Amino acid sequence: MSEHETPVDEQPAPQVDAGDGGDLTQQLAERTEDLQRVTAEYANYRRRVDRDRTLVVDQAAERFAAQLFPIVDDIQRARDHGDLTGAFKVVADRVLGLLDGLGVEAFGVAGDAFDPSLHEAVMHDTSADVDVPTASTVLRQGFRRGDRVLRTAMVAVTEPENPAPTQEPAAAQPSGDEAGAPASD
User: Fold this and answer.
1) DSSP helix/strand/coil, 17
2) Does residue 73 form part of some domain?
3) Fewer CB within 10 Å: C terminus or N terminus of the chain?
């Protein structure tokens, strides 16, 4: 034996009675179930935390984008009037690049079919040139991020002059006998 080694007292291994074998097996099964339950709970917790973290990041990006919308509206007005030149154009491109980086896209162009979930109708007109309600003028662009609409597009809607008649179900129309017959008591 060397100087650095210390003697180890050997302890005898615990003796298992034949009657304790079932009890140990039951305890092992219980501990295994507990471990599986705790592992599943932890996995669920991690998924929930990851989902919540993603949700918080998405909400923060959407709030930031919403604060940029008035600036984007001003940029669009300047572009429409031909005032988007020089250094202002560079700044405008960077602001629009921020929205692109957040995954925000603009929608709403003249000629789109009117969709109340995407468009806010502020003016109404009729015309024989359209077959379905159509966004004829876009007063303010809408924005969405993925499937989520962050701001609806403000539009003027043009509807057809003679809309197609709606078909009523035959069951809702009274028959000839029922239409003129007085009610009986």
Assistant:
1) coil
2) no
3) C
Residues in the chain: 185
pLDDT, tens digit, for every residue of 5-41?
A: 555 555 555 554 545 667 999 999 999 999 999 999 9
pLDDT tens track for 45-86: 999 999 999 999 999 999 999 999 999 999 999 988 888 888
CA nearest neighbour of 110 among 69, 156, 142, 78: 156
Instruction: Count how many domains the chain has.
Output: 1
Going by C-beta distance under 8 Å and a sequence separation of 6 or more, which residues neighbour residue 72?
95, 96, 99, 106, 141, 143
Structure token digits, residue 107: 């929608």
Q: What pTM was estimated for this model as a whole?
A: 0.63
User: Chain centroid to CA 42: how far?
Assistant: 27
3-state SS track over 73-142:
HHHHHHHHCCCCCHHHHHHHHHHHHHHHHCCEEEECCCCCECCCCCEEEEEEEEECCCCCCEEEEEEECE
2 is a domain residue: no
Domain ranges, residue 111: 103-163
- Tell me, yes or no, whether 184 lies in a domain: no
Q: Which residues contact 39 (CB under 8 A, 6 or more apart)?
A: none
CATH of the domain at 145: 2.30.22.10
